[in-house]
Design goal:
single chain
């Protein structure tokens, strides 16, 4: 009987706490990858073909939505984020907002938008703990 109880409790912890945390870390890793992969589009808004800008915009918006959803998927987010060294709720919201801003600003090539995009990328990286070299700031 104690083996069954131990197994059930272990599965509960695994499914309710550990898997959502791993999914959030996976989303952060995908965001890191995407910021590098799409840097040429983010830093040169309005220059790439319309199809490429649209695809990148949708991808960034989807990542923002996924990141935001983790606030609700990870149970007791404040405690869990502290235990597993995840970004705080405020940092997740800041990063999500910055990703939406990036998504919206890919079509305009005026008003030095590339500078705002660079600040948004820095904000995402700082909020999520993604390494960004000093020379890239």
């Amino acid at each position: 009987m104690s083996g069954v109880v131990t197994y059930v409790l272990g599965q509960l912890v695994l499914k309710l706490a550990i898997e959502p945390v791993q999914e959030m870390r996976k989303t952060i890793a995908i965001i890191s990858h995407s910021l590098i992969e799409h840097a040429n589009i983010i830093q040169n808004p309005g220059v790439p073909p319309q199809e490429v800008m649209k695809e990148t915009s949708q991808h960034l918006r989807r990542l923002s939505s996924q990141l935001h959803s983790h606030l609700y998927l990870v149970p007791c987010f404040t405690l869990t984020s502290w235990l597993f060294c995840l970004p705080t709720r405020a940092n997740v919201l800041d990063a999500s907002t910055a990703l939406i801003g990036l998504s919206n600003s890919l079509y305009r090539a005026k008003d030095r938008i590339y500078e705002q995009n660079a600040r948004r990328v820095e904000k995402v990286c700082d909020a999520l703990g993604i390494y960004l070299a000093e020379e890239d700031r």
